[in-house]
Amino acid sequence: MAEVRPAARPLSPHLQIYRWSWTMAMSIAHRATGVALYGGTLLIALWLIAAASGPAAYETAQAVAGSLLGRLVLFGYTFVLLHHMVGGVRHFVWDLGHGYSPQARMNLAKYSVVVSGGLTLLVWIVALTR
C-alpha cells in the first residue's frame, strides 16, 4: 500500500490566498444585507403589533422610531434593503448571461454601492420633505 503524503499546497482556497476585490466584497455584503433584513423585518413586525395594540403602544413605537437612534436604525435599514435589492438586480443581470467580463463585474460591484447609496438618500429626501 502506497504512503499518502500531505500536499505542499492548500487543498482548498481560502481568504488568505485571494486578493480582495469589489466583487468579493459585494458578494459578502449581499449575504450580510440578507441577514440584516431579518432584523429590520422584526422591527416592522413590532411596529405593526404596536399599531394593532392601541394608541398608547403606537405612540411609544412612533416615539422610538422618531428618536435620533430610531432614525439612524431606519436609515440603515433603508440602505440595507436597497443594497440587497440592487445586489439582486446585479445577480439577475448575470442570470441573463451579461456582465461576465472582468471590467463589467467590477463596474457592477462598484456601482451597486453608489446606486444603493443614492437611492437611500433619495428615499430619505422624499420622506423628509413631505
Would you mind describing this structure in some detail?
The chain has 130 residues and is an all-alpha fold. Helices cover 76% and strands 0% of the residues. The chain is built from four helices and no strands. Helix 1 (22-53) packs antiparallel against helix 2 (55-66), helix 1 (22-53) crosses helix 3 (68-95) and helix 3 (68-95) packs antiparallel against helix 4. It is elongated.
Q: What's the total helix number?
A: 4
Secondary-structure element series? HHHH
Mean pLDDT, to the nearest integer, reads 91
Sequence stretches where pLDDT stays below 50 over 5 or more residues: none
Distance between the termini: 79 Å
Query: Mind summarizing the main beta sheet?
Result: none
In short:
With 130 residues, the protein is mainly alpha-helical.
Detail the topology: elements first, then pairings.
Elements: H1 22-53, H2 55-66, H3 68-95, H4 102-128
Helix pairs in contact: 1-2, 1-3, 1-4, 2-3, 3-4
Please describe the structure with a list of short key phrases separated by commas or semicolons.
single chain; 130 residues; mainly alpha; 4 helices; elongated
